[in-house]
Q: What sequence folds into this?
């Protein structure tokens, strides 16, 4: 009998409470998604090939076809788990070599994790981009389905935090949106970004406030036509609102 191939634990995220496992395969397209208790919290994992997701992960991430396919599976898994519980999404490609190492890592970071879980409870992320001179109505889209769409959207969530915009109209929208949000992650510099992009940010919004937030987007879009248009994407799991300190790199012990 052949020995089974060595596996690692691929982490999708961390929640306070367990829930039903999503009825979709894990990031490798085969392994089931499991819940694993850790320091009083719940880690959502699947057991994947060590060769593909640890030993050769950096090389595989240079293969854009592989990266797009696997990134979509990661995003779908996180979204499926988020339908049943509040989840802190893990960074794509976060793996642990053993249950003990994962549980130990969660124990060390438990204070920060619990603070983040408290902040995101009952909330979801919405991304907002404002462009100059475009259609009158905002674009309210669901999470992307294709690999290329997901990679573009995910990249927009990983930004530096800049200073305030000098445009009073954008400040007016920003202040109104902040009033409806739990938290905001401002976008980075727009230089060299999408053509016509004036401003972008991510908002953490309670689900009970979703309708009001969308109505605000629609209101400003009507007021600004035809000089500006608003693109609003979501809802997302709260990728932009997990503290940097709670995003481990690949565990390699």
A:
């Amino acid at each position: 009998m052949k020995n089974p191939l060595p596996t690692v634990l691929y982490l999708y995220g961390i929640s306070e409470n367990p829930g039903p496992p999503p009825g979709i395969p894990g990031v490798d397209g085969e392994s089931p998604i499991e819940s694993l208790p850790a320091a009083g919290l719940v880690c959502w994992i699947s057991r994947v090939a060590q060769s593909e997701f640890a030993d050769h992960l950096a090389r595989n991430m240079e293969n854009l076809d592989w990266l797009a396919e696997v990134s979509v599976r990661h995003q779908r898994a996180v979204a499926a788990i988020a339908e049943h519980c509040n989840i802190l999404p893990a960074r794509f490609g976060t793996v642990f070599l053993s249950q003990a190492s994962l549980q130990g890592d969660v124990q060390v970071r438990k204070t920060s994790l619990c603070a983040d879980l408290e902040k995101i409870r009952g909330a979801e992320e919405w991304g907002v981009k404002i462009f100059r001179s475009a259609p009158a109505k905002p674009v309210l889209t669901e999470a992307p389905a294709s690999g290329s769409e997901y990679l573009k959207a995910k990249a927009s969530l990983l930004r530096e935090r800049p200073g305030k915009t000098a445009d009073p109209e954008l400040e007016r929208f920003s202040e109104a949106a902040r009033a409806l949000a739990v938290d905001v992650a401002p976008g980075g510099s727009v230089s060299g970004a999408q053509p016509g992009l004036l401003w972008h940010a991510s908002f953490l919004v309670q689900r009970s406030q979703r309708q009001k937030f969308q109505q605000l987007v629609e209101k400003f879009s009507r007021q600004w036509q035809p000089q500006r248009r608003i693109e609003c994407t979501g809802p997302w799991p709260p990728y932009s609102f997990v503290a940097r300190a709670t995003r481990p790199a690949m565990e390699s012990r």
